[in-house]
Amino acid sequence: xxxxxxxxxxxxxxxxxxxxxxxxxxxxxxxxxxxxxxxxxxxxxxxxxxxxxxxxxxxxxxxxxxxxxxxxxxxxxxxxxxxxxxxxxxxxxxxxxxxxxxxxxxxxxxxxxxxxxxxxxxxxxxxxxxxxxxxxxxxxxxxxxxxxxxxxxxxxxxxxxxxxxxxxxxxxxxxxxxxxxxxxxxxxxxxxxxxxxxxxxxxxxxxxxxxxxxxxxxxxxxxxxxxxxxxxxxxxxxxxxxxxxxxxxxxxxxxxxxxxxxxxxxxxxxxxxxxxxxxxxxxxxxxxxxxxxxxxxxxxxxxxxxxxxxxxxxxxxxxxxxxxxxxxxxxxxxxxxxxxxxxxxxxxxxxxxxxxxxxxxxxxxxxxxxxxxxxxxxxxxxxxxxxxxxxxxxxxxxxxxxxxxxxxx
Length: 409
Ligand code: ASP
Known about the structure:
Blueprint: H1 9-26, H2 31-68, H3 71-102, H4 125-130, H5 139-142, H6 146-162, H7 174-191, H8 194-208, H9 211-214, H10 218-242, H11 248-265, H12 268-281, H13 286-299, H14 302-318, H15 325-341, H16 348-359, H17 367-371, H18 374-408
The structure holds aspartic acid.
């Protein structure tokens, strides 16, 4: 029996990406058509992903924690994950600030009079903290509030482990694993559509953000993209090589489908299912990816932190303000916190930029300067965000394996 050889999903996504750019450029003068007839198919695809992602995170974290069987082990992995996430994020803002300062002289002086930007949402640290904890069982699912879903799923999973004699749970965990398998299968079905999703999401963005709009902001965009690349190539390569024992080339190659998807969708949460698949193919353990990646898609945003660093310098320079060293340190701290509070959806990082600007007394209205091209910043920062999450899953898996081997031998 002859079977037709099918193109790998990553190749299909790549072709879709190139086609989207080509068709997008051709359609720059017909952007409205792309917006009304191509984008809706992208929206359908994104909706399906949004539909699956909340229950998927809930059950996959539970299944991951239950397979570890030991709350202390979950705590150990959680600690390693959070330390890695915080360190890489602080590093990311620093790179953003460094390059921002280096290229400050080349930034265009844009007029800052008549700018208005309404900062919205909660940008207060204490509010962000309180918002991690759900007050209703179903609302986190309705609002797609990932952090609350993670907390809820951890509490239930811990409770299941604790019912019993302390050695093994008295609760039959098979239904949870079955539920997890069903959701994973459904997700796999949805992901088969990702080439179509990528094309329909990216094409309208290219068509409506034609070269003209980018114009005066090209330099800032370029600096942000240089930082994204430097951070990914230097920090992640070194980390996966030294701590994870994976060659950087193999890592980035394996990550390509998720990278291309993140670039087109600008949503870490949307990329989560594909990211899990890529990280597992790269050797990360399932029980670890199912815990580390949903957490990362919610709190670890290195690309967003870089963007906030670069934009803070750019906005300051447009207003003719020179930031002091102490102000830069404040930015490192607030951008790290702000990126934790940023939701993994398109455009969220720009809202949190308000918190960073306010912390050093820069005018929040300055956000209006970069708002027009936010999507282009966003595509790059999301790509960095999800790559950082996957690097963590690979590294924590390798560290755990090393620990187990030491214990056994
Ligand atoms: N879109 C980004 C993400 O999903 C968040 C941001 O806007 O910075 O990771």
